[in-house]
């Protein structure tokens, strides 16, 4: 099964952002951007302004993960800044999920939804057929470098089976601890987009091209084993 690679820009070197973005433009399938408000999660990271600044410098799909308490406050600014996917957490939209989905679509963007580790697939059962991507958090949200939660493999397989049975079109994306230790299990379970961060890419070598080659070697080994 083919899979896509989406580097997390939260984990890149902001000092070397121009050079690293040039490498990612040549090699990545899409770019993952975390928006955190300091309330839904304790951390504060990137912003719509960051999206606006890099949009002219990359042709890649910008996949925006919204870790915010009030997604409706951020959707239009994120869309206008140049995002392609806008992905709120299911836990923040279930009171008005259909309105949020329609708002994102009306802005010409693709719709994603993100599930925290403790949130079951059934939580989004009434609108899962409307989304373009489901992201499974395999760590608790908010910080890079956390340990992988193995119980999430069953959730990934559940999404894969549901997609096949119902003919749904969503991509199955994985966010959290995608690296050498987890690639084989993730791909076997049905992962289609791997978000790579500190452990999966950016700490493998100071030279991002070399780090990318190392990551690809690890993924090839895992894919062959899967």
TrEMBL record:
Residues noted as binding a divalent metal cation in the record, renumbered to the chain: 32, 34, 65, 175
Quote the EC number.
5.1.3.-
The catalytic residues are 34, 175
Is Metal-binding found in the keyword set?
A: yes
Quote the Pfam families the UniProt record gives.
Ribul_P_3_epim (PF00834)
InterPro entries in the record: Aldolase_TIM, AlluloseP_3_epimer_AlsE, Ribul_P_3_epim-like, RibuloseP-bd_barrel
Keyword annotations for this protein? Answer: Carbohydrate metabolism, Isomerase, Metal-binding
Instruction: Specify which residues bind substrate according to the UniProt entry for this protein.
Output: 65, 142-145, 175-177, 197-199
Q: What does it catalyze?
A: D-allulose 6-phosphate = keto-D-fructose 6-phosphate
Question: Which pathway, per its entry?
Answer: Carbohydrate degradation; D-allose degradation
Known cofactor(s): a divalent metal cation
GO MF entries: D-ribulose-phosphate 3-epimerase activity
What is known about what this protein does?
Catalyzes the reversible epimerization of D-allulose 6-phosphate to D-fructose 6-phosphate. Can also catalyze with lower efficiency the reversible epimerization of D-ribulose 5-phosphate to D-xylulose 5-phosphate.
Write out the similarity annotation. Belongs to the ribulose-phosphate 3-epimerase family. AlsE subfamily.
PANTHER family cross-referenced by the UniProt entry: RIBULOSE-5-PHOSPHATE-3-EPIMERASE (PTHR11749)
The entry's protein name is D-allulose-6-phosphate 3-epimerase
**Organism classification:** Bacteria, Pseudomonadati, Pseudomonadota, Gammaproteobacteria, Enterobacterales
